[in-house]
Amino acid sequence: MNKIYSNEIISWEDIGLISLWSDVLGYIRTGILNIRPATQDDINSILMLRYKATENRLRNTITYEMIASSLQKSCKAWVADDEGVVVGFSLANKKQKCLWGLFVLSSYQGKGVGEQLLQRAVSWLTCEARDYLIFKPKKIWLDTELGGRAESFYQHMGWERGEFRPDGEVRYWYLL
Ligand SMILES: CC(C)(COP(=O)(O)OP(=O)(O)OC[C@H]1O[C@@H](n2cnc3c(N)ncnc32)[C@H](O)[C@@H]1OP(=O)(O)O)[C@@H](O)C(=O)NCCC(=O)NCCS
After folding, report:
1. pLDDT confidence tier of residue 129, bands split at 50, 70 and 90
2. Ligand 1 pocket, mutate which of 154, 156, 167, 170 (most atoms under 8 A from CB)
3. Which residues line ligand 1 at a C-beta cut-off of 6 Å?
4. Which of 2, 34, 70, 145 lies in disulfide reach of 6, CB 3.0 to 4.6 Å?
5. Is residue 4 predicted with pLDDT exceeding 70?
6. DSSP 8-state symbol, 165
7. Which 3 state secondary structure label does DSSP give 32?
């Protein structure tokens, strides 16, 4: 089942409204109103969440500098902020047209936080895709652990399973 961001041509105004509506729905569901763009001050929290993950464990080292530099170039991240504590993040790369990461602290999972963070990233990629995908199929991708819970989550969110990757992960596609 596709979610709210799916397969329609979305204008800047629509995206603003969707974000606002998704904030309201998200708050009703999770009590966390503040899904916001990440700043440099959030990078350590993002790293902590990424290193703490027990599923989709990190395979390569990532550093503060790597994330800071990616945010200054082609990436954007969002955090779920519960009264000053970062409890989840998503990070997307518009140049590679992909979702690089989506992680929610285990005690906050199952409350709609992951869906809100995913929605922000997909809406942004949809907008940015205008520049990068003009003559190409409008789709974005992510790689995730084979057989993990994330696989069924992405399927539930309307993503389609694609090819197996040499590193043992599986690629997922989402048609914009
Ligand atoms: C995968 C993850 C991001 C999902 O976030 P979450 O906050 O727990 O998910 P949500 O509460 O927003 O769920 C949204 C919807 O997806 C469904 N859902 C959540 N996890 C699911 C799963 N494993 N399988 C199927 N559906 C799932 C929920 O039931 C909900 O459905 P509804 O809107 O129809 O009621 C989170 O579990 C996580 O961080 N996992 C560990 C890290 C990881 O593997 N990340 C992916 C890296 S690629």
Report:
1. confident
2. 156
3. 53, 55-56, 101-104, 109-115, 142, 144, 148-150, 152-153, 156
4. 2
5. no
6. P
7. coil
Diameter over CA atoms, the chain: 43
- Nearest in space to 140 (alpha carbons), one of 100, 101, 90, 99: 99
Give all domains of the chain, ordered by start, each with its CATH number: 2-175 (3.40.630.30)
Angle at 174 between CA 171 and CA 176, to 5 degrees: 150
Helix segments in the chain, DSSP class H: 12-30, 43-52, 64-72, 113-132, 149-156
133, with CB counted inside 10 A (0-12, 13-18, 19+), is middle
Q: CA 173, CA 176: separation in Å to the nearest integer?
A: 10
Whether 1 shows a pLDDT value over 70: the answer reads: no
Q: Is-contact 158 140, C-beta < 8 A? A: no
Per residue in 34-73, pLDDT (tens digit) is 999 999 999 999 999 999 999 988 888 999 999 999 999 9
pLDDT, one tens digit per residue, over 85-110 is 999 999 999 999 999 999 999 999 99
> The whole model's pTM is what?
0.87
